[in-house]
Specification:
This protein is an alpha/beta fold. The protein has helices spanning 13-18, 21-28, 47-50, 87-90, 117-139; strands at 5-9, 32-36, 55-59, 69-73, 79-82, 95-99, 104-109, 144-149.
């Protein structure tokens, strides 16, 4: 049976809900939704979203109102893993994974480098560290979907 997966940078889960996120969920009905930039703690997720027919799993940043990722899923996963085990990445709530019997899904929010050289270097460090983290996972034969906002663009 096919599984539909959507990935959204919500730029704040509360703001996204005010703009109709749960209505969109009802209409589009994806099986799994990967969220980036939730900018909220778990207790700040709107009740309307909690009651939209999805299991919600979130990994917020330590800094309030910043970054964070989540996964909404109709089918309860076998396992949820938050973070990478790398403190400076996990403090910013950058990676969450839902594992199901036949596959796994990651929601990833890479740092943006647009605010200057310091953050650009953080982004490069993240991409290197994430590559090392995800490589053994991808060697496993279980299908893996990497969803997210990787803050990458092609410069012509």
């Amino acid at each position: 049976m096919p599984v539909t997966i959507s990935s959204l940078n919500v730029n704040g889960i509360r703001a996204a809900e005010r703009k109709g996120l749960s209505t969109w969920l009802q209409q589009a009905g994806p099986d799994i939704v990967c969220l980036q930039e939730i900018k909220a703690d778990v207790n700040q997720v709107p009740d309307t979203l909690k009651n939209a027919g999805y299991h919600g799993y979130y990994f917020p940043a330590v800094k309030k109102g910043y970054s964070g990722v989540g996964i909404l899923t109709k089918q309860k996963p076998d396992r949820i893993v938050t973070g990478t085990g790398i403190d400076w990445i996990d403090d910013e709530g950058r990676v969450i994974m839902a594992e199901y019997p036949g596959y796994r899904v990651f929601s990833v929010y890479a740092p943006s480098g647009t605010t200057g050289e310091v953050r650009q270097n953080v982004k490069y460090r993240f991409l290197d560290a994430f590559g090392e983290f995800i490589s053994p996972v991808l060697r496993d034969p279980k299908p893996t979907m990497l969803c997210g906002d990787f803050n990458l663009s092609y410069d012509v």
